[in-house]
Fold each of these.
Amino acid sequence: MRVLMIAPPGAGKGTQGARIAAHFGVPHLATGDLLRRHVARGTPLGRTVQAYLDRGGLVPDRLMQDLVRKALADATTGGGGYVLDGYPRNPAQAWAAYQIATSIGATAQVALHLRTDDDEVVRRLLARAGIEHRSDDTEPVIRRRLALYHEVTEPILTWYDRRGILLSIDGMPDADRVTAAVIPALEARRACHVDRPGPVPELLIAAGAVSCG
Ligand code: AMP
């Protein structure tokens, strides 16, 4: 199963991403976690990106592209799937993700969008701040991350919709109920089997030319 997760901060990407990955037996690649690990280890990349994370800004596309190319190549060695969580986050990254995935024959089958309400995600993230102590879980930084999401991330959903791979699920209920909605919906998409992953089958599915199940 090859899934991209696109949702605002606090929508439950981390929790749902881990559960989806466990269900399908594929790696969960969360770009925020990968970056935070670099920061914690004090790598050159970690030192470069720390200020972006602290301010809730987006790490430059070129750095993200290198990180994701390597993570996806490692994950799909031997033909495996992935749950890519937190990437892409803007149109340039959406195009880069498509090109990287095409080059390794592993384009996404589903772009999973979790729908939420801004006030609810702010409440969730402030609650998380008391537990995880992330540098970017303060109210001004949360608001900035949300604003960026609406400005540059949300518009890419249209592209996935047009490609016929968008799956939009209500992320407002509690985590177990969201998982109970997400897993069967992904299973249904998996049944939509195509022999040759890539743009042509996806376009055929969107046009109803390839039947599912
Ligand atoms: P997350 O854990 O997904 O909320 O990401 C935490 C932070 O990591 C974000 O606020 C960004 O600073 C950075 N980050 C994660 N993914 C990306 C990405 N695809 N592009 C740019 N920055 C990212």
Note: The chain has one domain: 2-30+82-206.
Amino acid sequence: MDRIKMTTPLVEMDGDEMTRVLWKMIKDELIEPYVDLKTEYYDLGLEHRNETNDKVTADSAEATKKYGVAVKCATITPNAARVKEYNLKEMWKSPNGTIRAMLDGTVFRTPIVVKGIEPVVKCWKKPITIARHAYGDVYKSVEMKIPGAGKAELVFTDENGNETRELIHNFNGAGVIQGQHNLNSSIESFARSCFNYALDLKQSLWFATKDTISKKYDHTFKDIFAEIYENEYKEKFEAAGIEYFYTLIDDAVARVMKSEGGFIWACKNYDGDVFSDMVSSAFGSLAMMTSVLVSPSGVYEYEAAHGTVQRHYYKYLKGEETSTNSVATIFAWTGALRKRGELDGISELCDFADRLEKAVISTIESGKMTKDLAAITELENPVVLNSQDFIKEIKNTLDKM
Ligand code: NAP
Ligand code: MG
């Protein structure tokens, strides 16, 4: 059989621990036998990040800007224990944080739905994608404890030294205050990423804030989304048969719980933090989620939403059997290959990505799965496979297809 040819390389970002082990198995068993894989390889494993003083991370983000599509393995974000374990020169920053800052993107997370692992919310028939704004608000706030009576004010000093003041509160006793900010440029990027992704998926976009209470802060989010939609996307949305829908956050929550899914839910930073955990746990597990960073300029980075599964890796190193779920990592590869196929007009590559995803889903639906899924499935007598055998079983299914 002739392998599928690629014209532009994928940016391949290798990672750490158990996911690095899975990464190689996935390439060897599920991709390279079928695709004449072209990648520009960056080793983001912690040892190599340390050797390059983390330059490799920035280089991989630059390459992503150049080529447009990357696939990333989970990586260790160093803490004090990792600095010791790997004898690091520095406590290097989170690679995801570095890449996100350089690409200025929004992260979209969608559950992978299979029969036998049913969402706990019974009316959810289709996946709900969460788009989380990844800048500002409470994550970049400053806070103060107020010890006792006194006046707290917001003060803005412009470049010429002119002050604008707003009274926060005249305190009679102790209390707390908090100052948050966001940037119009960041909200604009967030909005464009969401509108582009909705067009990509041909799904409607929901957005919600608390603009009735927060008449300047949240209202600015609402206004920026509305203006960009009217000026740049309305016609495209109408042509695609999808809608942009704005409502209040509490109303959105009530509607989401009664919906059948199948839309993108854009969330402010805090709402996205909270509701992405709600949606992912209601649908099953982090190992059954796709995750993609989309930049406003239309650059895509696909990854798994979970970490490097350290506990399993130490078992693997001791020669013990592991049953680590590779689905999210496989879907990172299929997402990237499909996007590359779309951009380069290689329909065989898109078809291959579709087929591999179907093979994964039908393997699980036939009752063969990893331990984490066996624990939550409604299928009777699931067959629990180890990490390697699960991937081999997917290959069997794929070959039959
Ligand atoms: P984790 O790797 O997500 O794993 C936490 C636990 O969740 C595992 O011990 C396992 O539970 C379960 N789990 C997660 N993914 C699984 C999978 N694919 N298959 C089966 N079970 C899975 O989080 P962590 O252990 O807290 O973090 C390990 C490292 O990952 C850290 O150094 C962190 O910095 C990094 N991290 C990276 C990313 C990223 O690159 N995107 C994201 C988060 C964390 P059981 O042990 O009970 O089986
Ligand atoms: Mg969280």
Note: The chain has 14 helices and 18 strands.
